[in-house]
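Same chain as my last thread, 282 residues:
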Amino acid sequence: MPGREQPSGELERRWASPAGVWQRYGAQRLDALGATPSLYSFREPPLDAGDAAALLDFPPRAVVLDAGCGTGAYLPHLAARIPAGGRLVGLDFSPAALRQASRLDAAALTLGDVQRLPLDDAAFDLIVSAHMLYHVPDIEAAIREFARVLKPRGVLAIIVGTERDQVALAELFTAAGGDFSRGRYADTRFNADIAPRYLDGIFEHIEQTVVTPELVVPDAEVLVAHFEGERAVAEPALRDGVRWEAFIENVRRIASETIAREGAFRIPEEIALLRCWKAAQP
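reply #2:
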């Protein structure tokens, strides 16, 4: 596989398996447990799925796939831009996520795995893959499937961080007792910098747009809640001998000290939109 050497065993299972993904995201995104605001509600300038959708071109009567649509964050923004006669499909492997997405009434929804798409060849003009590919066990298979269901000269739009994205959050993880190399596991699986290793030879042209917002967090409990929500993957990445409870207290202490000193805990981001054109001929 392209990219860096991958950790194996428990961390791989927790990060890239369907059960692991929803163990990590379920409480935060589906059950909405707790009253602490999301870390990403403190992004400055505010950015949402609509900002990414505004950068995409939609041909007449465009047929669009949101691959890994989750609970539907991008669906209303994509639906609003599809020309008359077009169609939007949202696909995810989680029935629970699709039940949430169905409340938006923005797209036809399909249960499926991006590694084996239950979709026809050359069916789509545009595929959107947002912050998802680093969860897929076989990323190369997913890329091949995207190319299969795209029309000639169709576009794959990938939204993902670079290697420089959220470094301050990774440094907090390390300072509180985490292992840096394993804590950055998502970024070593797939990011904007290594994406061409997967895409070259399948897509004939790639354009990249990068935005650099910042998470400006005023309350340490927001960071505590963020790591608690990631416990399924974060706990196996702690240094030997560090217990989860001690790690969380370290996060709270370090973040509180930083906020008292600087007014906020700042996490610079670097997020890329990759637009990848499928070759006219295979």
